[in-house]
Amino acid sequence: MGLSMAIVSITKLLLLMCGLATLLLTRRAPGEKNLLAGTFTPIAVLLALSAFALSLLWTVAPQADALGSLAKYGKLIVIVLMMQLIRDRREAMYALGAFILAQLFLMTSSWMLFVQLPVPWATSNMALTKYAVFSSYLDQGIMSAVLAAVCWHLRELAPGRFGKPLALLVATASLCNVFFVLSGRSGHVVAIALLSMAIMWELPKRYRPVVILLPFLLTLALFFSSTKVRDRLSQVQSEVQSYSSTVQPDTSSGIRLNLWSRAVQAISQHPLVGSGVGSWSTEYNRLQREQNPAHQDIAGNGNPHQEYLMWGVQLGLPGLVMICALMLAILRDTLKMEQPYARAAQSVLLALAVACLFNTSLYDALIGDFFCILIGLLLALGLRTAPDHALATRQSEPSA
């Protein structure tokens, strides 16, 4: 956090190499459970990475762009490494605790910026205006929303006498940070989705169909209670209307609509195998030049601000199927877990699915690392928690 991107990238590469070496060289103790056996996530990850690697044979992108994009998707292997290298529930709890403490530090720093306290470690160029600490308010809003969901669903696991109240306090502070401090519309949408799902799970089963209305009711309530949400929603409306009337993608929403239309056009021209890994910038520049010969090319390794379309451009319609299959594989594995762990992991997966509608949340370096690490941690924790331990935990809870 706050370090040079080059240092962070080199460190991540070294960690990945060490993780793979440990995975290959370490011998499991007799009777030790192989967590990967019978799970679907590792298979889906390896298939996705293999498809991207295979598309090097036909990609239209320059070699540097192709290899760079393949490396970006290499972070998916972190999910598998987390599942395999974390040996027991105790290690998983320590790792998740460290992760949550880091996110708590990030969220607290954002609040400090908001109340105009000095935060010398804040390196973002949006620190003083948008209250983002290290990256952008877009990434930080999504991360704060996910932190709130994880703390809520795993509140019973918080250690100490005041662990549960503190978990609830962190969840509340994180949601307030998203809705009343940060301006990221993606974070607002993700938070509304996670809050709706959490409310649905707390309702009796006969009332759960009301979840269809919950997002709209929450949005309406936030529209009148949060100036951040109201201003950003109003801005979306005006930007879309401006784009529809002038077709000038000079706003955030207008740029996205233009990129999405070009992505759909690129997929329609290569529906079976796509244009190959790293091909988005090349395809976008080609399509733009066909309409405007004076178009100034965008840099390589760009993205259309939509993960599903990104996979479709690179791998065709099979790419769309593949990213959905990856998410379904993770969901399938969470169904083997006890309720609190499953709900926490499913909330993170829902956040990823929603965030990918507006951003390339797996392709991007910062938010992509966040999701891969957290999903791997929660899968390791949930799948390594013995059923008898979970049963004892439930029996020790006071009955309602």
Description:
It is a single chain. The chain has about 400 residues and is mostly helical. The chain has one domain (about 35-385). The chain is about 70% helix and about 0% strand. The protein is built from 18 helices and no strands. The protein has helices at about 5-25, 40-55, 65-75, 75-85, 90-115, 125-130, 135-155, 165-180, 185-200, 215-225, 225-245, 250-270, 280-290, 305-315, 315-335, 340-355, 365-385, 385-395. The model is unreliable at about 390-400 (pLDDT under 50).
**Topology as H/E string?**
HHHHHHHHHHHHHHHHHH
Query: What is the multimeric organization of the chains shown?
Result: single chain
Overall, the morphology is globular
Proportion in β-strands: under 5%
User: Which stretches are poorly predicted, pLDDT < 50 over at least 5 residues?
Assistant: 388-400
The count of strands amounts to: 0
Mean pLDDT: 84
Q: How much is the radius of gyration in Å?
A: 22 Å
Counting helices, strands and paired strands, the structural category is: mainly alpha
Helix content: 55-70%
Distance between the termini: 42 Å
Number of structurally distinct domains = 1
Instruction: Give the biggest sheet.
Output: none
